[in-house]
Amino acid sequence: MTIRESILNKFKYKKKGAILLLDPEKYIDTTGFNNIISKAVHHGVDFFFVGGSLLLQKNMDEIILHIKAINPQIPVILFPGNVIQISDKADGILFISLISGRNPEFLIGQHVVAAPLIAQTPLEVLPTGYILVNSGKATSVNYMSQTLPIPNDKPALAVATGMAGRYLGLQYLYLDAGSGADSPINPDIIYHVKERVGLPLIVGGGIDSLDLAKTAWDKGADYVVLGNGVEKNPSLLTEVLDYAKTYNLSLDVDQ
Ligand code: 1GP
After folding, report:
1. Which residue has the CA at smallest separation from atom 1 of ligand 1?
2. Which residues touch 18 (CB under 8 Å, ≥6 apart)?
C-alpha cells in the first residue's frame, strides 16, 4: 500500500492515526532512541516523520537507516526544514508549501531546487499545505522561515488558507503550532478547517497529553503528530497509540 492509500483509508473511515516525529538532534542516547522506536512499532504507529530545523542530510540518512533496521515496514516520511534534508533512504517526503506565510522561498523557492533531486529518488511525494498557527511564543519554524503564523483565535483565516491550498491542488494539510508549542492548535481551527476544506488533516505542535490528542482527533484531525511530548514523557506514545488502536478496532467491528 502506498502512503497516500493509507492516508486516504484513514480519512475515509474516520480512523485515528498517530505519527512520531523524530528530530535526531534531540536523541543523543541510542538506547533511549531504540526503545522509543521499538515501542512505536509495537504499539502501531502509522508513520515516522524525520526532520528538524537545522538537520543535515548525513544525520537524516543515519536516523532513517537506524529506524529501518528496527522496523522495515512502517513508512518513514521526511518532514524537511529545507532542501538539504532530502534522503533517498526514506519512503516519502512531505512536499510542504508554507501557505500560512508570505516567504516565497518556503512557498515555491526551495521546491524548485528540490524537485530535480527528488525526481532521482524513489520517494513518494506528498503535496502538503503547511499552516503554522500561533502557539503563544516564537517557534523555530517562525524563526527559520521568517513568517508570521496565523493567530490561534482566527479560524476563518486558517479555513481560507486551507481552501486556497486545496484549490492550488495540495492534497494534505498540516496544521502545526510548532515544535514545543505552549498551546496546541485551537480546537475550533481544527474543526472548521476539516469541515470546510475537507482534506486529510495532520495536526501537531504541543500535543503532550492523551486528552489533547483526543481533542484534536475529535475535532477532525486524521493524524496527530507527537514530538516533544514523547521526549519528555515516553508513556505518552503508548497511551496515544493504544487509544487509537482500540478506537479503530471498534470501528471495524461496527462495519
Ligand atoms: C512540530 O508538529 C510537530 O512540527 C510536533 O510538535 O514537538 O510540540 O510535539 P511537538
Report:
1. 179
2. 45, 46, 213, 223, 224, 225, 226, 240, 241, 244
